[in-house]
Structure formats: C-alpha cells, structure tokens
Design a protein that fits this description.
The chain is mainly alpha-helical. The protein has two domains: about 110 residues, no CATH class; about 475 residues, no CATH class. The chain has 27 helices and seven strands. The protein has a three-stranded antiparallel beta sheet, with no helix packed on it. A hairpin with a 5-residue loop joins strand 1 and strand 2. One of its GO terms (molecular function) is transmembrane transporter activity.
C-alpha cells in the first residue's frame, strides 16, 4: 500500500508556516478538516478519555480485514507544538484510503497474513477506493456524548469562523480602546456586585465597600495580565466568581463571626483571606501537578450542568425580596434588562450590537438615572421623617415604614462617594494578618474545584473561537494552576472572592469578533489605574441595593441557564441523566431549607431571611460540647451547604 491519502494533514513544516491559524489564517486554508483538530469538549479538556476503546477495521481487496487499535488510527501532533499559538495539529480525516495506501501507524503494524477472514460487504466507489468503517457496535452513551460535542464544536466554528482580529494581532489605538471598553463593560456586573453583597453582610461601612471594590479592580487587572501572558494566553478576563459567594456567606454568618460587636468586618475579612489563600494554593497544586486533569476525567457534563446551575439558583431568596422593597425602581430595571437581552439584541448602532453586549451596564445606567430623578423630585421626601433619623428606635410605625422606603429607593443613602479619598493605593494585607482555620479552608478548597470546572468550559469555548481548536490538557493544567496563584493574590488583597475566568467574556468575543488579546490587556491596565482613584470605587459603592438585586436576578438567571445548557453535550433522553440533574437541583434548594429550621434565633434575629441558611450552616442539627467534634461537624455542615448551593 502506497503512502498517498486524500485529505492528508499538513506536514510539520507546514505547521510552522507563517500563515498558520494562530497568525491570521483559518484552518480550512490548509486543506484539512478543522473539525478533526477540535475533538470534543470532553476529550480535549479531560471530561472524557481520548479513546472510547473500539478498534477500526480496514477492508482489504481480498475479502479480509484487519482490526487496528484505536491508538494507532490517528497521528499524534508533534510534541513541540502543544500551545494554542503554535498552529493546529495535523488531523486524520480518516474518510477514504486508496487501494494501495500504506499503513498510517509504525512499520510492521499491519500483517495481512495474520488478518482474520470475515464475511462482510466490501464496497468500492467509482474511483476504486475502499471505505474504512468503524466496528459495528451498539451506541454507548459516551459515543453519543462525543458525537454531540463534535457537532456542537463544528457548529460553533462555522458560525464564528471569521474573526476581525486574530489572537496576536494589534487592532490599532481606536479599536483597541473601543473593544477594551466592550469587554470590561460586559462583565461590569460580575466585577462589582460581589463586594456590594458581602461587605454590608460583614458589617462594613460604605467606605469599606469602596475599599474592597478598589482592591477588586486591582486584583482583576493583575490577574488578567498574568493569564494573557503566562496562563491560557487567551483574551479572557479573570474576575470575581459567584462560586465563592455561598462559602463566603457561610463563613460570614457563622456563630464565630456573626455575633462580633467590635471590628467585625476586619476580623471576618481576615478569616476569608486565610481560607482563600489555602484553597487557592490547593487549586494551584491541582493545576501544576496535573491532578486536575485526572479529576476532570471523572466529571462529565451531567455533573457540570446542575453544579453550575445550582450556583445561580442558590440565591433565589435574595433576588425578588430585595427588589420588592422598591418595586417602582426594581421592576423597571428587570424589564429593561429583558428588553435589551431578548428584543433589542439584534439592533446595531454604528455597526455594534450595543444592547446585546451592554445589556447590564445600560440597564444599570438608565435605572440609576431614573432613580436619581425620583430622589431629586422629592418623591421619597416625607415631612417629619428624614434619613438623619435612621437607627432611632423611637420612630412611629408610619415613619419606620417610610424609613424603609427611603433607604431602599433613594440614591443619596450612601456616603461612600463623599467620604472616599481621591487617591488610595490598595495594598496586600490592608485588613491585617490573615487568620487560618482548617474548617473554612476546606470549604474554599471545594469552591476552588467547582470554579476550576467552570473555567474549563470558558477555556474550551474561547479557544474554539480564536484558535479554532480546543485547548490541550497541558494548557488547561497551566491555566488552572495560574488561576490558583491569582486567587492567592485575591486573598492577599482581601477581595472576599477568588479570581476565576468570567464566562461573560466569551460571549463578548463571539459577538464582537475580536479575537485579539490586546484589548483585554489594555483594559486590565486601565483597571489597575482606576483602582488607585478612590472616587471611582466610592461611586460604584453608591449603587442602591434595589438596583444591585435586580441586576443579580438577571445575572443569576443567566448563570443557571448557562449551566443547564451543558446538557446538550449529554444524552438528555437518558432516565439516569434526568434523575441526576433533577435530584441535584432539588437538593440544592432543599438542603439549605433543612438547615434553616435548626436556627433557634430566627424568630428574634434581625438577619434577613435570605441569609439565614448561611447563618445556621455552622451548626445545623448537630450539637456537642467537645471542641474537636464541633470543629468536625462545623466543617461537615459547611461542606453540605457549599455542595448544595
């Protein structure tokens, strides 16, 4: 059999060609199948093995066939070209072989004298070529998953196959600024909303909120620059993740910190810092040791879908109860977000779909301006009742009700903007030396694994868009390891959350067709500069809580939906898969309710009901006078709340 094969992959010389896909050309211009280079999400990121165990049979002209092991059926990419920027690996189309085609494997791997004869149909096409067919077997669920993923990857590649700028291209000054603004405005919600939730929950002042926002901007900029240079090297932004919100609230409302009367904010923040540092160090170890790839092989899309969806559903009790405090502002905010995201998303202004990319910042700006007009029009000004009387226990019931309305609807409640300094440099350990306890550290370790699984999906989707193939296991391990190191930076600065890949960024890449990482790097530098301007952080900290809650309703809904969308990679008709997903989602809501019934102080506590499940996570139904046993049960309860939410 000779060496000619139609649709053969490019040689190693052609892979180093200046017109490789990473330098601006698409894979199809090399005359090979781009779909074969991508594989599937599961196979290329560790969710599934590289082989499903079945062999390939080659029909010969004498009526016999040879079973070839699957590990010899395709060429391996050169060992020196494993990076996403190094060009695509040569695929094996595997469609047709000529009559005298030689073996693709090592010399001597085919021996026709030892081939076993079978009775099978040998078909030739008009050119005399023989068709290579896989061994006939019943379809296993793994095969269905991989076939579905291949089709989905091929659809994504064909839909987004024309990027305006490739990975290493410089778009110029004006496009650089415009696309950087698009990237970072699209993730504004994830960037600033977490401090607006956890700092007031810790008893922090508006000034403390502004400082945490400033630290968040600093860490986001530094983490993004590190990842675009030494991590995945993709145009992805590293910011605060909602995955860390549930464990953070469990620590904040534990009995050890909820009852503090002095320096509660700083002492709680130092505990969060210590837990974050240990959990992130564990994540870095998993990444750089390669252990994360082994963990991901045990996790399939049926596990990922309810896990990510449960993160969005876990805070359902926070959304509308807070929005309902001021429905004349919260409801219009929700309607605007739905209008922009669903009905105006295809409308382009100067060639840009601003409503699709900027749904969250546009909704925030318009609703905030509307609330400001209501405040300045004195809609929420009442005679005999003013904001200066808040905290007064002798108010009349009517004034107390009006006080709640004013605190929820007025835009001048927070004094963060007026009290913030013009310039303030965030620095590590600004809240003091972190404290370390193994119970809270274990919780953050679990959260880091969940955040890593979520990041792998972002690596895969963005790599398909900008490099036309899925990331290799080496790229994934390196990225997860660096993600752990950048989360350690978040622990040093005290942001209250780890730094993970923001999935909203992938959506922006697909919409804007901007595959270059230069705008992301430029925007990261701008974030670092913004972090030292205290008035910017004070302005962000002044966003009314009702507007924050309405934004979170929309974002948590999208997070739950994106998690469930991973089910397209699985066999959704399987009763086993349906049971796993349904039971996981149900228990994610039911277990926190189970813990809440053991809160003995719920009737007299001033804590809002949506935070009570995290308040009782430290004890639940278990009570003991032994301190070691109490520590074990506390860690166990923390983990149950974390895994449930």
């Amino acid at each position: 059999m000779s060496a000619g094969m139609s649709g053969s992959p490019p040689s190693r010389v052609s892979q180093a060609d200046p017109e490789s896909p990473s330098l601006g050309k698409r894979p199809n211009e090399h005359n090979y199948n781009a779909r074969a280079t991508m594989g599937s999400w599961a196979r290329r990121t560790g969710f599934r093995g590289m082989s499903n165990g079945s062999d390939i049979e080659i029909n010969l002209s004498d009526g016999t066939h040879v079973a070839v092991p699957s590990n010899l059926s395709a060429e391996q990419p050169p060992a020196g070209r494993r990076d996403l920027e190094a060009g695509s690996a040569g695929p094996n189309n595997g469609a047709l072989a000529t009559k005298d085609a030689g073996p693709r494997g090592p010399p001597g791997s085919f021996n026709s004298s030892k081939a076993r004869p079978v009775e099978s149909d040998v078909s030739r096409n008009s050119s005399g070529q023989l068709r290579i067919e896989p061994l006939r077997m019943f379809k296993h669920q793994d095969d269905v998953v991989e076939q579905s993923q291949d089709e989905d990857d091929h659809m994504m590649l064909s839909k987004h196959s024309h990027m305006k700028y490739e990975l290493r291209e410089n778009p110029g000054l004006v496009p650089l600024i415009l696309y950087a603004a698009q990237h970072y405005l699209s993730i504004a919600g994830s960037l600033i909303l977490i401090p607006l939730i956890i700092v007031p929950a810790m008893g922090g002042t508006p000034e403390d909120t502004a400082k945490v926002v400033s630290s968040m901007l600093m860490v986001t900029g530094l983490s993004t620059l590190l990842h675009t240079s030494f991590g995945s090297r993709l145009p992805l932004i590293q910011g605060a993740s909602f995955v860390y919100l549930a464990p953070a609230l469990s620590i904040i409302f534990s009995s050890e910190f909820a009852n503090l009367t002095e320096n509660r904010f700083k002492r709680t923040m130092r505990e969060l810092q210590g837990a974050m540092i240990i959990g992130s160090a564990f994540q870095a170890f998993l990444g750089y040791s390669g252990a994360m790839s082994l963990i991901l092989r045990a996790i399939n899309p049926v596990v990922v879908a309810p896990t990510v969806a449960a993160v969005g559903l876990a805070f359902y009790a926070y959304g509308f109860p807070v929005v309902g405090r001021c429905v004349e502002i919260g409801i219009p905010q929700l309607l605007l977000l739905v209008l922009f995201a669903l009905y105006l998303r295809k409308i382009a202004v100067f060639g840009h779909r601003i409503f699709q990319v900027y749904a969250v910042p546009l909704g925030l700006a318009l609703t905030w301006a509307y609330a400001f007009l209501l405040t300045e029009s004195k809609v929420y000004t009442y005679s005999g009742c003013s904001l200066s009387q808040r905290g007064n226990t002798t108010l009349t019931p009517q004034c107390q009700q009006r006080m709640t309305t004013m605190l929820s609807c007025r835009t001048d409640v927070s004094n963060a903007l007026s009290t913030s300094a013009w310039f303030r440099f965030p620095y590590p350990f600004q809240w003091g030396v972190p404290t370390f306890h193994w119970q809270t550290a274990v919780v953050m370790m679990v959260a880091s694994i969940i955040a890593s699984v979520d990041s792998v999906g972002a690596y895969h989707a963005s790599s398909l868009l900008v490099a036309s193939r899925a990331p290799t296991p080496g790229v994934v391990s390196r990225s997860i390891g660096l993600e752990g190191l950048t989360s350690i930076l978040a622990g040093f600065w005290g942001t209250g959350s780890g730094a993970t890949t923001l999935t909203e960024n992938v959506h922006t890449i697909a919409v804007t067709k901007m595959g270059s990482r230069r705008p992301v790097e430029f925007g990261a530098c701008i974030l670092i500069l913004m972090s030292v301007i205290g008035k910017i952080s004070g302005f962000i900290a002044s966003i009314p809580q009702v507007i924050v809650a309405a934004l979170l309703v929309f974002m948590w809904t999208m997070l739950a939906a994106m998690g469930l969308s991973n089910l397209r990679y699985s066999e959704t008709g399987s009763s086993r898969n349906v049971l796993i997903v349904g039971l996981s989602l149900f228990l994610s809501l039911s277990i926190p309710s189970y813990f809440q019934q053991y809160d003995n102080t719920s009737s007299t506590s001033t804590l809002p009901t949506y935070f009570q499940p995290y308040n009782v996570a430290a004890h639940g139904p278990f009570h003991t006078s032994s301190k070691p046993v109490s520590s074990l049960t506390s860690a166990y309860n923390y983990l149950k709340i974390q895994l449930a939410s």
